[in-house]
Amino acid sequence: MPLPILYRINLRLEKLRVLLRLCHRLQYLPHAGYEHAAKAVNTVGKEVGGWIKDRRRAEG
Known about the structure:
This protein starts with a helix and ends with a helix. It has helices at about 5-25, 30-60. The chain contains 2 helices and no strands. The chain has one domain.
């Protein structure tokens, strides 16, 4: 996958993290739901981060 796409995905994950924290803080999302969603987003973020690192190494 091209780096620009991976960067966009990473940015969207960051936006999602902010929105999840906001929803939790405003009590639209219960703690258990926030915890589950945050763990899932972090897992995806680690995968995307690994792909970015791999692509940089391959292109660099």
